[in-house]
């Protein structure tokens, strides 16, 4: 089955083509990968494409239309050096990453008019993601007429959250109106929890895994025997950890105070785009730049890193409490996979639990998935390269085969 996967964002679009022969447990490399990047009103649009044979293309586009750019990206599937298909008609299904499914969707579904309506309605609570995904869906409907399209929700993995983890301590009518903790990064957690189970191979009688998904958006998930028990993101992807440009959890009183001085749109911009690593450091939203700043003696860079670690470790502690223990700690996504100092700082904080890193393994460029704990460590520490696109493809395969 040939499955096209789309991850549509506010300034980028990533796409992959997978050829799956079964519901593969082990990750399969994509046959083709392509991405669009743009700034503002399409003044600077670039396309990067590669296929499984090592062929690559990178070029700039002179267009002010996302539809044109998207069509050009899809064209590279069938034309040019990166072509892997004779015709777009060979695609069997299209899968879309949808960040917020709210109370409506607890599993992946085929997309229809009602699904699109709900995705649009929930865009208010995931403004950086849902509308972009809806635009991608509608574009693919025009380009691949009649082809099954499937929505895979980041919130669906957290359907197993117990009530005490899902309900906020406000008026109960909030919960009745759908205001609750939904959690996000669920596609990543679904993949990483399965991959972690493969790596530890039933080493523990009951798996208690804390997964740290640390990228531009960041969150944690407490996973017990493959099911989400707690997570740091909540009703929206704004709650929880300090992120690249998002604040994470703050005192709600700050919101009330800021609204005395600025309107809700300006405050939304502050919380989503001007906070986090960027807001505290004043340097960059990129953790790599913060580490460079520390090396050059910048005190704001040091403060930013220390604050990130403090809030991360405090939240990991809460996840461990929810699980009543831990036997596996997973680091994934850009910061988690590529920042040895961060992993060391975190593991040092929890050394009282018997966690111990192998310093050589931690500092070395990691193979794709590996255990970096010392052989005497009571807790395994894994670096897992999250593969959300593959997990979406796997969900599409399952849904199509079940119908």
CA radius of gyration is 21 Å
Shape: globular
CATH architecture of the largest domain: 2-Layer Sandwich
Spatial ordering of strands, largest sheet: 5-4-3-2-1-6-8-7
* Strand count: 14
Q: Provide the succession of SSEs.
A: EEEEEHEEHHEHHHEEEHHHHHEHHHEEH
Overall pLDDT: 92
Poorly predicted ranges (pLDDT <50, ≥5 residues)? none
CATH overall fold name of the largest domain: Nucleotidyltransferase, domain 5
Q: Kindly estimate the percentage of residues that lie in beta strands according to DSSP.
A: 15-25%
Secondary structure layout:
Elements: E1 2-8, E2 12-19, E3 32-39, E4 44-51, E5 56-61, H1 66-75, E6 93-98, E7 109-110, H2 113-121, H3 130-143, E8 149-153, H4 163-166, H5 172-176, H6 186-200, E9 208-214, E10 218-224, E11 227-231, H7 252-258, H8 264-273, H9 276-281, H10 287-295, H11 299-323, E12 328-332, H12 333-338, H13 340-349, H14 359-363, E13 369-371, E14 380-384, H15 388-402
Parallel strand pairs: 1-6, 6-8, 9-12, 12-14
Antiparallel strand pairs: 1-2, 2-3, 3-4, 4-5, 7-8, 9-10, 10-11, 13-14
């Amino acid at each position: 089955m040939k499955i096209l996967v789309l991850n549509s964002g506010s300034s980028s679009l990533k796409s992959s083509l997978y050829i799956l022969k079964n519901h593969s447990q082990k990750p399969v490399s994509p046959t083709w990968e392509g991405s669009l990047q743009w700034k503002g009103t399409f003044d600077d649009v670039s396309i990067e494409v590669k296929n499984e044979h090592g062929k690559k293309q990178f070029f700039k586009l002179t267009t002010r239309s996302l539809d044109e750019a998207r069509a050009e990206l899809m064209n590279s599937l069938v034309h040019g050096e990166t072509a892997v298909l004779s015709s777009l008609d060979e695609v069997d299904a299209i899968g879309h990453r949808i960040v917020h499914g709210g109370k409506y969707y607890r599993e992946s579904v085929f997309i229809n008019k009602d699904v699109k309506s709900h995705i649009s309605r929930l865009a208010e609570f995931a403004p950086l993601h849902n509308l972009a995904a809806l635009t991608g869906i509608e574009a693919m409907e025009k380009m691949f007429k009649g082809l099954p399209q499937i929505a895979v929700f980041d919130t669906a993995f957290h359907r197993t959250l117990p009530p005490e983890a899902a309900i906020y301590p406000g008026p109960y009518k909030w919960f009745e109106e759908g205001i609750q903790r939904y959690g996000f990064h669920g596609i990543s957690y679904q993949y990483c929890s399965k991959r972690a189970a493969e790596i530890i191979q039933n080493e523990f009688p009951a798996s208690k895994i804390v997964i740290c998904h640390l990228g531009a958006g960041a969150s944690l998930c407490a996973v017990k025997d493959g099911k989400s028990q707690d997570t740091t993101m909540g009703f929206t992807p704004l709650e929880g950890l300090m992120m690249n440009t998002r604040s994470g959890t703050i005192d709600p009183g700050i919101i009330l105070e800021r609204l005395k001085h600025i309107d809700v749109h300006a405050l939304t911009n502050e919380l989503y785009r001007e906070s986090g690593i960027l807001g505290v450091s004043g340097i960059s939203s990129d953790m790599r730049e913060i580490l460079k700043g520390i090396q050059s003696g910048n005190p704001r860079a040091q403060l930013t890193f220390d604050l990130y670690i403090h809030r991360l470790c405090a939240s990991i502690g809460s996840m461990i409490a929810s699980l009543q223990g831990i036997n596996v700690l997973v680091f994934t996504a850009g910061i988690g996979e590529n920042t040895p100092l961060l992993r060391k700082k975190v593991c040092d904080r929890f050394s009282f639990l018997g966690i111990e890193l192998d310093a050589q393994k931690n500092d070395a460029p990691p193979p794709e998935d590996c255990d970096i704990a010392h052989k005497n460590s009571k807790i395994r520490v894994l670096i897992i390269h999250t593969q959300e696109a593959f997990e979406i493809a796997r969900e599409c395969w399952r849904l199509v085969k079940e119908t």
